[in-house]
Amino acid sequence: MPHVDRVILITNDDGVHSRGILELKQALQDMGDVYVVAPDRGRSACGHGITLHKPLRLHKVTLADGSEGWSTSGLPTDCVHIGIGAVCPRRPDLVFSGINLGANLGWELTYSGTVAGAMEGAAFGVPSVAISVTTYEDGDVFGPSARFARRLADILLERPLPEGAFLNVNVPALREKDIAGVAVTRLGIRRYPGRVEARRDPVGRTYYWLGGDEPEDGLEEGTDVLAVREGFISVTPVHLDLTAHSAIEHVRSWPLDGCLAGVGSPAAD
């Protein structure tokens, strides 16, 4: 029987009718009351955006298994706000974001709407997880990720993370028996070449298309990028504090006071 006193909020950036969010909901539903609040369309690579200057719409929808969910016109961050403030009967015990089609590794984290959903959950003080499978081929690829999420949820409830921390999980697109294991990792290096193509539309106006090239990965020991490449599930603790602590003393050594305009100088007047 589910623990009816538990409340779990799920969002994503692939849209409310994605297969990944449905399989995640089904995996977690024995734990309590699971609420799906997700964008009404794909919102991949929207980052930690939030909608402040236009109204947000919320609609009840029926998911593919006949269960109830909620769609919003907003972004994953909006979904967490609406889920906590307008859908869930109280503050949730867990927030999950996913299961995303496509990895969210290393430096690309800040692009990810999936990761943003977990970040916002952590900002509300709720134990939160972003989970992705490392393929873009939609199909029978979510089972290992969903089962891992279910087991991880139990651990997270028993052993909460420090305030401001959340987990970013990437699961290789392999059969469960072929996964090498679980690695606790740090964020690795993943760069995109940044190619920009100039194209013309049918009436001759120029427009631009970004990307298209494969990312360049730094395969360093202990990183999420290498772990997934080697067939491991990567579990990376991430913190809302983005301060580069190792750089603080270096920047303090700079003559920053010299950047201020001198009293009485034309720039200061």
How would you describe what is shown here?
The structure is a single chain. 22% of the residues lie in helices and 26% in strands. The protein has 6 helices and 13 strands. The strands form 3 sheets. The chain has a 9-stranded mixed β-sheet, with helices on both faces. Helix 1 crosses helix 4. The longest helix is centred in the middle third of the chain and has 16 residues, at 143-158. The protein is globular, with a radius of gyration of 21 Å. The termini are far apart.
Per CATH, the class reads Alpha Beta
Largest sheet: 9 strands, mixed
Strand content: 25-35%
Distance between the termini: 71 Å
What pattern of helices and strands is seen along the backbone? EHEEEHEHEHEEEEEEHEH
State the domain count: 1
Count up the helices.
6
- Which outline best applies? globular
Poorly predicted segments = none
CATH structural fold name: Stationary-phase Survival Protein Sure Homolog, Chain: A
Spatial strand arrangement across the major sheet: 3-4-2-1-5-6-7-13-8
Mean pLDDT: 93
List keywords for this structure.
269 residues; 26% strand; alpha/beta; nine-stranded mixed beta sheet
What is the element layout, followed by pairings?
Layout: E1 7-11, H1 19-28, E2 33-39, E3 58-62, E4 68-72, H2 76-87, E5 94-101, H3 113-123, E6 128-133, H4 143-158, E7 165-171, E8 181-184, E9 189-191, E10 196-200, E11 206-210, E12 216-218, H5 224-229, E13 232-239, H6 248-252
Parallel strand pairs: 1-2, 1-5, 2-4, 5-6, 6-7, 8-13
Antiparallel strand pairs: 3-4, 7-13, 9-12, 10-11
